[in-house]
Amino acid sequence: MKAFDFYAAKDANDAVALLAQHAADPKVRVKVIAGGTDLLADWKFSPHGPDVVVDISRAEELKTITLTEQGLVIGALVTHTQIMRSPLIQQMFPALVHAAHTIGAVQTRNRGTLGGNLVTAVPSMDSGPTLMALEAIVTIAGWGGRRQVPLSEFFVGPRKTILKPDELLAEIIIPKANLGKPTHFYKFGLRKGQALALVNAAASFWVDWGKNTFVAARISLGAVAPKVIRATQAEAFLEGRTITPEAMAEAGRVAVNDARPISDFRASAEYRKNLVAVLTKRCLEGAWALAQTKRVEGSNGNRNA
Amino acid sequence: MVTVTLKVNGKTRSATVPPETTLLRMLRDQFDLTGAKLGCDVGDCGACTVIVDGQPVNSCLMLAGQADGRDVLTIEGLADAEHLHPLQKLFEHFGSLQCGFCGPGVIMSAKALLDENSNPSTQEIRDALGGNLCRCTGYAKMIEAVKGAGCMMRGEEIPEVKSA
Q1: Is A106 within 8 Å of B63 when comparing Cβ atoms?
Q2: Of A134, A85, A130, A122, which is closest to residue A106 (Cα–Cα)?
Q3: Do B68 and A8 touch (CB under 8 A)?
Q4: Average of per-residue pLDDT values in chain A
């Protein structure tokens, strides 16, 4: 691995100060490291490693999962294992638990963080679709203060985000209006363990139980475009439509038009399009099953319950 | 250079290494703990698995500097001169390893599992070992050994060898 200078930040403020100090020189390549499960694997085989590494893995305030006025706030350093074990997330968003479980293996889930998965911005990331289907917002910390943007605007392209060299992803927030929204995630990889997604998808919707119709359907797809996307045509197709198996299957076919997959060594574009239709349908079926369960349990299967 | 002070197998150790040194390299080259193996070096094979603060991790994907102040357990920390750990006994009993290269990593992953749940299901064991690649013995005998070690840790009788 190429040599670099290493600074261990005491907390998030210290990390931002270290970034401001070192990123001021445009010739110096500064990188933030948390779990390191993506970065170290890359740096070992790249001649373009960083000059300065700021380790944020000790910033305890970024490791919490809390309910606030804004919604469910997940610190950027929360690991995939923490997500799987959080009673709050298990109860509100089993889809997030499922998505976390599909990432890597135990060892990578113990180190890898939610923030890291998003910042790496690989189009096949398994954390992306569920959060996009829940209209997550991210908080970015910099020397000048904090700013919030929708997750959908955070990604720019493969391995590119809007983060500036002196900025840090601090939090991921699921807005209050979407707490408990029935959501389902589905990943299709070639194996159960340690496989990247050929396609992954998530769907969420509320139910108008009086009319038995889709309300605020949100569908998100991964690995079928330069970044994680929303299938807006499929969403529009479902809005206000009666919930039937046929509508879910048709939404899957419509979602194919939202996807722009490429052919690579993992799968052809044509195959990925077929997967988009099937996965979208299955996500809608999964979210529908969850909505019905929540209704029976008397929890919030619809927004006003 | 970074100076790293951490607990390894119960003892406080310290080393000064270049910042790009991984925890795995430090354990092997500075502390002569060669149980954790350098396999793929990118976090796929799990041969470098050690337990950090109670959780199994790939030591090839952790910088030495990130391990400062942490509590690390390696395969060398399991047995003492007289007693093998139940997992080591049962891996021997069931013949769960052939070449043995993946062994230290597999056993550390299994130990972390049994520390949390001494009566895991087959699926839970498979999930716990999903990040440890074995290319010669296969997993059937490992799963039996992990179940057997769980029985031993719970003070129950060990089931007979099924796959022999």
Answers
A1: no
A2: A85
A3: yes
A4: 96
Range of the domain at B134: 86-153
CB B19 within 8 A of CB A6: yes
Task: Tell me which chain A residues have a C-beta less than 8 angstroms from the C-beta of B65.
Answer: 6, 8, 55
Do B73 and B90 lie in one domain? The reply is no
CA pair distance B106, B129, nearest whole angstrom: 7
Q: The CATH number of the domain where B32 resides is what?
A: 3.10.20.30
pLDDT digits (tens, 9 = 90+) for B15-48: 999 999 999 999 999 999 999 999 999 999 999 9
Treating both helix axes as pointing N-terminal to C-terminal, what angle do B103-116 and B86-94 enclose, rounded to 10 degrees?
120
A104 interface with B at CB cutoff 8 Å: yes
Summarize the confidence of residues A221-227 as an average pLDDT: 97
**d(CA A158, nearest CA chain B) in Å:** 20
Contact B56 A1 (CB under 8 A): no
Residues B137 and B111 in one domain: yes
CA distance B119 to chain A (A): 18
Return the pLDDT at A40.
Answer: 97
Give the pLDDT confidence score for residue A305 in this predicted structure. 41
Residue A299 has pLDDT above 80, yes or no: no
Picking from B53, B77, B101, the residue at the C-terminal end of a domain is: B77
Please tell me the predicted confidence (pLDDT) of residue B158. 81
Decide if B58 is inside a domain. Answer: yes
Tally Cβ neighbours within 10 Å of residue B88: 18
Compute the distance between CA of residue B53 and CA of residue B8 in angstroms, rounded to an integer. Answer: 11
Which of B77, B112, B144 is the endpoint of a domain?
A: B77
Q: How far is B81 from chain A (nearest CA, A)?
A: 29
CATH of the domain at B98: 1.10.150.120
Is residue B94, in this structure, part of any structural domain at all? Answer: yes
Distance CA B34, CA A186 (A): 40
Q: What mean pLDDT comes out for the span A122-129? A: 96
Q: Which pLDDT band, with edges at 50, 70 and 90, does B164 fall under?
A: very low
Structure tokens at A195: 């496989």
Query: Using CB atoms and an 8 Å cut-off, which of residues 194-233 of chain A contact chain B?
Result: 194
Residues of A in contact with B2 (CB under 8 A): 6
Residue in B57, B65, B68 closest to A107 by CB: B57
CA distance A60 to chain B (A): 14
Report the number of distinct structural domains present in chain B. 2
